[in-house]
Structures are given as C-alpha cells and as structure tokens.
Amino acid sequence: MEDSEKIMNTGQQSPKTAAKSKDQMLSGAAWRTGADMIGKILGVIYIIPWYAWMGRFGNEANSLFSMGYNIYALFLLISTVGIPAAIAREVARYNTLDDPNMAYRLVRQMLGVMLVLGIVASGLMFFLAGPLSALVGGKDSADLIPVMKSLALAVLIFPSMSVIRGYFQGLNQVKAYAMSQLLEQIVRVIWMLAATFAIMKLGSHNWQNAVTQSTLAAFIGMLGSHNWQNAVTQSTLAAFIGMLGSYAVLFYYLQKSGNLNKLINPGPVKSKINALEIFRSTLHTAIPFIVIGSAIQIFKIIDNSTFMNMMPWVTNYSHNELLVLMSYFSANTDKLTMVLLGVALTLGSVSDPLITEHYVQGNRRELATLVGYNFQLYVGFMLPAVIGMSLLTKPIYTIFYQIPSGLQSSLFVFAILQTFLLGLYMIVYPPLTVMDHKRLAMRIFTLTLVIKLVLQVPMILIFHTYGPLLATTVSFLVGVFLFIRKLHELTHFSIKNTVRGIQGATLLTGFMAIVVIIVEIILGFIFGKSPGRIASVFIAAIAGGAGFYTYLWFAAKLGLLEKWFGPRGLSLRRKLHI
User: Could you tell me if 307 and 460 are in contact, meaning their C-beta atoms sit under 8 angstroms apart?
Assistant: First the structure.
C-alpha cells in the first residue's frame, strides 16, 4: 500500500518536473533514433567493399555469412528472453520507490543469471556447430562450422550485456544505451572490413577464413593466405569484437556515473527481490513475443536448410553453386530488405504502448482509430519504398553487388515486394499480444508455420529458387489475414476509412512510379544500358530523389502529410515550400 502511494505521489508531477521528463524523453528518443539510423546505414554501406573484396566468391561468401547469422540471431533472441525490458521496468520501479540499492542488487543478481544463460547458449551453439551447419547448409557444409563457432563467442557475452543496457534504459539514460549500440556496429564493421581486406587483398584469398577466424593472432597469421573462407569467418567474428566494444562503452558510463561501485557493493535495501523469480515470470510473459516475433528469422532458417538439402535431389548443382543461388533469393536481398523491415519495426514500437494504454483504459473508439491509422501510416511509408526499390532494382543491385542477371533481378524484385507483406506481419501481431490474446496469436503463428512447412519442399522441387519465396508469401498471406480479421473483431476499426487512406497512398505511389520510370529511361540514354557502380549511384539518387519528391509533393497537395504527421506534416510542407 505504501509502495502504491509513493508511485501515485510520484506520478503527480509539477509542471517543472513534467517538463524535465519530457526533455529526457525527447533526448532519449533523439539518441536512440540517431544511433539506430547510423547503425543501419553502416550495416548497409559496408556490403559494397566487403562484397567487392570477396571477388568471384562474393555470392558464396554472402550466403555463408547469412546462414550463420540467421542461426546466431535466433540464439540471441532466445538467450535474452525479454530480460532487458524486464530489468528496465524493475529498475525504474525501485528508483520510483526511492530504493536504488535494490535496483543495484537486482542488476547484480541478473548479471549472474544471464552469464550462466550466455554460457549455456554459447556452449550449445559451439558444440552443435556441426549438426546446425548440416541442417542449414547441407551435407557439404564443413565451411560453415567455423562460422558458427566464431558467432558462439558473441552469444556468450550478449545476455549479460543486455542486462546493463536494460539498467541504463530503466534509468532513462538512453545516451549510454545508444552509444553502446552504435560503437558495437562501428567496431564490427571496421573489424570485418579490415580482416576481409587483409585476407583477400594482402594474403591467401581464403574467403571462408575471412568470414570466421577467432583470434587476433590467427588474423595476423592469415595475412598470407588469401582464403575466402577465412575472410567469412573473420566477418562473423566481428560480431564478438563489436560486442566487446559495446561492453567497454557501458562500463565507461557506469564508471563515469559512479554506478559501477554501487553495483559491486550495493547498500542496504528496503525491499526484497528474487532474481530467479523475475527471470521465471519474464520468461513466461516473453515466450509468445519471442516465438511470434522471430517468425521471419525461423522462416529464413527453414529456407536455408530445405533449399540446400532438397535441391541436390532434382539438380546437379554443386555445393558452391547452390550457395550462389541462395544468395540471389535470400542473402543478397536480406541485407537491403532488413532496412525496410526496420521501418515496420519502428512503427510498431511507437504504436504498441499507445494501443496498450487505450486498451487498458477501455477507450474503444480511440483504440479503433489508432489501429486503422497504424495501417494507413504503414502503407504510406512502406508502399512507396517497396515500389521505388523494385523499379530501381538494376542500379541498386549494381551499387551493392554487381550488374544483375535476369534471374538476380527477378528474385530481387520478388523479395522486395514480399517485404511489404513481412513488414505488415510485424505491424499486426503485436496488438493481439498486448491485448491479452497471446494464445490466439500463437495459434495463428503455428498455422502460418505449418503452411510454410507443408508448401516448402514441393515449392522448391517445382520452382527451385522461387520456391522458398512462394511458400513464405502464401503462408504469411494467411497469417496476416487472420491477424487483421481478429484485430477488426476486437477493435472494430473502420475498414472504409482505412481503405480510403490506403487508396490515397496507392495513388501517390502510382504517380511516383511514373516519374521514377521516366527519369530512369532518360538517364539510361545518358549512362548506357549497363552502367557501372558510379553511374548507378547517380541513377538511383536522381530517379529515386525525383520519385520521393513527387510523392511528398502530391501528399502535401492532397493534405495527407497533415493527416499522417499532424503539425509535423505542416512543418515539413513549409520546409519543402509546397
């Protein structure tokens, strides 16, 4: 009762305190957004030199890299089990109750729990590297084993690092959180590119080693090897090196703020806490989010394992040739589509707390309006991006990889268009989970997964490289339809108003597409039919920029900017002088 009163009294903020809280929130949002944006840019730009230095093994290397990272990303999701958010919540609660020492003790205990979890997860990934490699890479997958083992190092330290990030999030010290993420990406990219250049340009050209090696001494020793397998190994090792950099930043901010000594030797506490109990309750709550949220990752692993194992039944392709084909429909496209999916994830993360708030308060009308608005905003963002990238496939693919063949172009377009559906999935499933319908969401996910598994093998055997994409498209169409239907049953959002808003975005996208096509044709006369990388940069920038401005211009003229962004849309319109 006393705790409740403290929380209620804390909630009655003075205008000065409220303004300070608002400033903290805006500052935190700016740091997180800025760090995330820079990280995403680095995560895309590095591909250009990395792929080029791999030479004729670029596609094989990218597939090997992607197969290892898909397993690694799933292990990271499982090994953290929603703990960072739980830590942030508990730290904020105990600081509100004026018991910061309890927060210190909680973090210290959870560090021990997550260290053990990291050791277990890392050990599983390391010792199961052989079976996992055979699962996702086929019988000739020995070159994937060192990649898996190198990634196990990152899995070892990530769970405990996530506890410290959750601690800073709970204190609303987002700068430390954001800087740790940013430095992790910077160090990772630097190590990856330096190792790849050293191996492929100064050494033995062993691309597998460039994707894998696990020690600095091994890296120095490989300067004479030029082995592309070594280059791939070093590139995945970069995840571990990046996390070391991130850890260093977190410890720096702990020391700078004076919290490191308090975490090591916390003072007397007013409350009682059981870290294992928090872990168990968090695990129970987080499992549906983890499972449903990892659907795309799971489907990618299914694609890897079935394609590499089933294609030898109906073709005579070698292992390396299959790696090349898989890069066409998966690895090469994933690097770019993940940026688009990041937009969907951001939109979802912004709307979920608001949906939760209106649901708990029983504001059904506001909830329905918000859900319908979320669909319109998603289409307004994602549709022009997907269509624009599809129309600019040739210059974009040339910039990051090489001048595409007909098969590469068609698979890239398919994957880009499919991203719209995958992103929609990331928008529609969270509202059900936050509205206490986790079991239903799990059933829909299970049905989606079953459809994928049933269709996968026959689709691959009949359509080859198009098979995995087709199976994913059909399964997600069913899943997204069921999620949307249930959302409508729960919220009764206006289908008419939502469709009307979507029609506006579709019309604008049509105008944008016409401009992009015309500009691209004109530039084609200037740069020729097969422009190189530099010319492709100009084509993508000029045609894409013209299309983007056209979209904004029509959106402003039709009043959609104000509808989507409110006062910010009006401000944007003024800046564009429209």
Answer: yes
